[in-house]
Design the sequence.
DNA sequence: TGTAATTACGGGATACGTAAAGATG
DNA sequence: CATCTTTACGTATCCCGTAATTACA
């Protein structure tokens, strides 16, 4: 086992107090943390933490070692940070998976900025609205609208997008317009699969508060553009990102429903495969995107 | 990979200059060192060493990181040493493989001293003159006379033992006594297998210098006592440790041959399975034995 | 052309997670 | 008795070594 990881676990155990907390923080199981601490003590030949199932007490040796461990970890941090400043030119290839429409509208310009700043970086853009397997496809970062169902991925929020509840005028003429979220039960809805709570739509009420509706429909897709297409064709009601539906709204191909209710914004996330160590250029890319998205609001 | 191991490899690469030298020192293959350095650079996102197949040059970032890496490694060393001093009571079980005769005469008393000093230590003595598989038998330390053929084991010299060239009086009466090392070619010799150069016996000449003889015989064994028994029974000439043959010499069951030539002493070694990390109690035990054997000469 | 580093690949050790056991207040 | 750690076990991963390839003097 990586000795610095053992130190990290030990330090956090001293600070947080329970194996469970450390495990959650470090994204491993309790049993793993237990083995890590045991291995560290075994290596040192010294008990660091006296523990029963209910109590933990840092030994005298543990107190001493805790200080040293903290120093070591921060020395590693500063050493790596220092050497990375020394050679700030990022290089190598980034494989970035982006949604088709959102990618074209919002990601590409920012990627261009990133490329301009870092001459030696290459970017491979993989357009997809599906939740591709990041590991198999060797993708460094996937940018997606909404939180993924697969929570094993590490995610970071880049921005939020407004959403509109829409349907085609023809559909509304035929089926009527819902007047309250609960009316959606009577409608055919177009569901986005692959997102957490894809079938529960919530709305902010004018007086404050929130109303949720579990919706169902004939069509479900893990692709927003497919839903947009189906909505245009009058197959049902869809809850879609503002920038996705704007043209259709302007053209009169779609009309907005429940316009007096607010829709909670959907997060735009950068997703990474659950690697233990994130490559600097990936981290820097994501930092850059977070920063770039924070500058301007999505319209 | 263990980050501190990567640092160690990098530091030694800077100091030694070639991947091969580092690999030999760290007991891994060149390809492994190559991957280690590549991984370290990959993690940092910085090239540390510009290398072609023929030349290596430490980059500017590498120079800087070298200093930090050295500090980190020595910080780890001192942190572990410090915490181990803090709690010097060793505990746990040591599985020690010892030769039958040498063990009884020289090891057991020293083990007793070690047990007396460390109350919480348990020792399991496994008597064997064979070269047992340390890993399979989960042996922590094996003490052996002579250097093992299997050089994958890490060994540490505890002491040296004098040796005598012996045969039974009956054998000498029948076959005559050798007058020079080269005469041994005409004799039936009793060979110890499992030792490096077990079939090449060398002797120090009175005027200085050394003479080697490649010997052969009908009987070979990886057990000194078997050779002693065969020598007593008159099956040939044996080169055996002083303490092993003393009783038989005193009793007249064996006579010494070539008494005017010196025999290079055989090393007494502590052997460990090639583990990456030696447990403190094992290390301390061996340190203790080295010290204990250094006190008194073997007779 | 010979030496040294890198890359490819296969086998084996190992470290993780799941689940059950154990312990303690 | 409930909660938290440890232990047992199966599996997937990763890491090392062997061998082929590449690169350079």
Sequence:
């Amino acid at each position: 086992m990586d000795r610095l990881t053992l130190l990290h676990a030990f330090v956090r155990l001293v600070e947080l107090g329970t194996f469970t907390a450390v495990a959650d923080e470090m994204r491993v199981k309790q049993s793993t943390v237990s083995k890590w601490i045991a291995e560290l003590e075994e290596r040192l030949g010294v008990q660091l933490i006296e523990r029963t199932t209910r109590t933990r007490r840092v030994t005298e040796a543990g107190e001493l070692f805790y200080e040293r461990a903290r120093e070591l970890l921060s020395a590693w941090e500063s050493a790596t940070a220092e050497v990375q400043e020394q050679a700030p030119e990022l290089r190598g290839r980034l494989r970035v998976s982006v949604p088709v429409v959102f990618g074209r509208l919002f990601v590409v310009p920012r990627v261009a900025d990133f490329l301009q700043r870092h001459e030696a970086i290459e970017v491979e853009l993989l357009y997809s609205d599906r939740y591709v397997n990041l590991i198999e496809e060797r993708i460094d970062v996937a940018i997606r609208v909404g939180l993924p169902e697969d929570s094993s991925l590490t995610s970071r929020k880049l921005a939020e997008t407004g959403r509109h509840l829409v349907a085609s005028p023809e559909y509304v003429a035929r089926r009527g317009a819902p007047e309250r979220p609960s009316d959606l039960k009577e409608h055919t809805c177009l569901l986005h699969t692959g997102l957490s709570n894809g079938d529960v739509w919530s709305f902010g009420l004018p007086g404050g508060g929130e109303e949720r509706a579990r919706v169902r429909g004939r069509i479900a897709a893990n692709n927003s553009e497919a839903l947009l297409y189906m909505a245009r064709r009058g197959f049902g009601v869809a809850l879609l990102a503002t920038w996705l539906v704007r043209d259709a709204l302007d053209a009169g191909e779609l009309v907005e429903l429940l316009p007096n209710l607010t829709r909670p914004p959907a997060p735009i996330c950068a997703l990474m495969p659950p690697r233990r160590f994130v490559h600097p250029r990936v981290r820097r890319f994501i930092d850059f995107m977070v920063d770039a998205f924070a500058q301007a609001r999505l319209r």
Remarks:
- The CA atoms of residues 157 and 269 of chain A lie 4 Å apart.
- Chain A has nine helices and 14 strands.
- Residues 60-86 of chain A form the longest helix (27 residues).
